[in-house]
Specification:
Blueprint (H helix, E strand, L loop, with lengths): L8 E3 L2 H9 L7 E3 L47 H6 L1
Parallel strand pairs: 1-2
Length: 86
């Protein structure tokens, strides 16, 4: 991998780091910065209380709007613009 012109590469996981290093990038130039949310500690199924979940019936006016739930990172390769356009 051409790495002489690269100062530093920031990646979200150890897997990504290992892939870049295994491809020949100097390990000293690679930093793991992670995602914006710590997904390993954000949700604990064993402590989730489903009885606290709220359910609301939408009025006729509210049903004319859209609510999108994102279960992915909003980046181009995930085609989020296409989702919103659809």
């Amino acid at each position: 991998m051409q790495g002489s012109r690269i100062n530093e590469v920031w990646l979200p996981s150890r897997w990504n780091r290992d892939a870049f290093v295994n491809a020949g990038l100097d390990a000293a130039k690679v930093r793991i910065v992670g995602e914006g949310i710590d997904t390993q500690h954000a949700f604990h199924p064993e402590t989730y209380d489903a009885t606290r979940a709220k359910f609301e019936v939408l009025t006729a006016t509210e049903r004319r709007t859209f609510v999108f739930l994102s279960v992915f990172k909003f980046e181009t390769r995930k085609a989020w613009r296409e989702l919103v356009t659809a």
